[in-house]
Amino acid sequence: MATDPASSLIAQFPDHTIHLTDTSGFPILSSVISDSPSSDASGATLTSLTSIFLQAQETASRLGLGTPKRITIETEGGGVVVVQSSITASPSSSPSPSAGDPSSPTSGADSSNPNPAPQLGEGEASQPIVPTLISTVIAPSAAQMAEARLATWSVEAIGRKFQKAWLAEQEEQGQTGEIHEEEELNGN
Question: DSSP secondary-structure letter at 110?
């Protein structure tokens, strides 16, 4: 029997906190147990870390440094390590190069939205924009930095699979919608 990749990942790194969200903070994968009394505080902390990561991306972009792919934070004395990364769609799966890039000229006027919809010109078809995802991995000590990086890469792989599935679903829904519109036009 095949195991779920997310469950397998969480089991592989039991000492690490693993979290994957979209840019609005909606959790897609999390090792935080929702029944735990500390889960509310942990969830709020993870949401805050996601928000700070997005702010760091925006700041780096505004300073002309580019958009960070990963940020690693190591606390003093060999304490906690946080590794965060941005999972953006590859150019082949994303219809717009500006999706999720706040420095793009087509990203719109609202710079607080790190994943804005691109501006479409006349005659351009509306394409689904693959959501940017943010992974957060927290290791309990600096001695586990290598494991945190491995876990981050695994979360990124799961995130890319999620994006591909999301895009396929959006395209399928779009094709279904086009078929229904065509049937309505033909009187069926």
Answer: -
β partners of residue 70: 85
Tell me the per-residue pLDDT of 116-167, one tens digit each, with 9 for 90 and over.
444 434 444 566 788 999 999 999 999 999 999 999 999 999 999 999 999 9
Q: If you compute the radius of gyration of the chain from its CA atoms, what whole number of angstroms results?
A: 19
Q: What angle do CA 142, 148, 152 make, to 5 degrees?
A: 150
Length of the chain: 188
Q: How far apart are CA 122 and CA 132, in angstroms?
A: 26
What distances in angstroms separate CA 22 from CA 4, 51, 65, one per listed residue?
A: 20, 11, 23
Q: What are the C-alpha distances in Å from 164 to residues 46, 90, 93? A: 24, 10, 7
Q: What is the pLDDT of residues 54-71, one digit of tens each?
A: 999 999 999 999 988 999
Is 57:46 a contact under the CB 8 Å cutoff?
no
> pTM, whole model, 2 decimals?
0.71
